[in-house]
Amino acid sequence: MIRKLLGRCAIGALLVSTLAAGAARAEYPDHPVTVVVAFAPGGMTDIVARLLSVDLGKRFNQTFIVENKPGAAGQLGTEFVARQKNDGYTLLVSATGHVIGPAVNDRVHYDPVKDFAPISILAKAPNLLVVNPALPVKTIPEFLAWGKSQQGIPYATAGFGGSTHLGGEWLKKITGLPMVHVPYKGAAPGTNAVVSGEVKVAIQDSMSVAAFIKSGQLRPIGVVSAQRSKLFPDLPTLAESGVTGLDVYTWLGLYAPAGTDPSIVEKLNKAVNEIMNSPEMVQRLAGQYSEPVGPMSPSQVTDYVAGEASKWKEVVKTTGVKVE
């Protein structure tokens, strides 16, 4: 009789434990979530992460804290998140360099797919070729003619191994222009360098340079992509001036460490899809010269990241960019 009672108690305790565990999972998030931005404040990655974090906080009635960890074109922040507990309380927002870094640097200590649980593709923006207004060029043909007369053309980007860097090296490969990469710890400091005249040329995502274009502190020359952007309908592509083959843009992804509970990934994915594609957010992004990619399931996001990783491996082979 005692054995039966003890057995029933054990079963009851197991059931209570199981139900409690299920309830705990259902309550996510029950304390603040850290959203690591792999770049310095002020650039596209940072702006979008902050907009999203505010709305996630409202959605879940919980604090989402943005923490910038810039360095090595996003590598430092990315590797930091990869090492964190996979409990959903440390997330990563990074840019296209997330899939490029391992291809250009053998010392990068993460796999863009295997080491993360991709949650969402947040937004995309065209990359633009911009110059300091003091530079005597206003069109792509003028830039190409001027560039061929230079011994070197220093150009600023958000850092080594990002899409803006690869865009410049791709341009160098196609045209023979003496492009010289000057990496910064994010789009904001790189853009400020061109505004101040420290560097005269930059390839940056449209969100990071739009305000300076509006104010006349930067002059856009062309879109570094295969087609014109509806965000800049009057700005020609480099392809329209004979520089064919370039198709470079910036996209942002939201990730959790690999092994994160699929129910947490699903919950975040659903919330982020609704937030990023809401009329209010679409309008806010348009005001910042970027746009949402559209709703994707976690499996679709994983496929997207894997496809981009494959694409950029080929670009790295074409340009020969590599950390020695």
TrEMBL record:
It comes from the Bacteria. InterPro entries: BUG, Bug_dom1. SUPFAM superfamilies: Periplasmic binding protein-like II (SSF53850). Residues 1-23 form the signal peptide. It holds the Pfam family TctC. Keywords: Signal. The keyword Acetylation does not apply. Belongs to the UPF0065 (bug) family. This is ABC transporter substrate-binding protein.
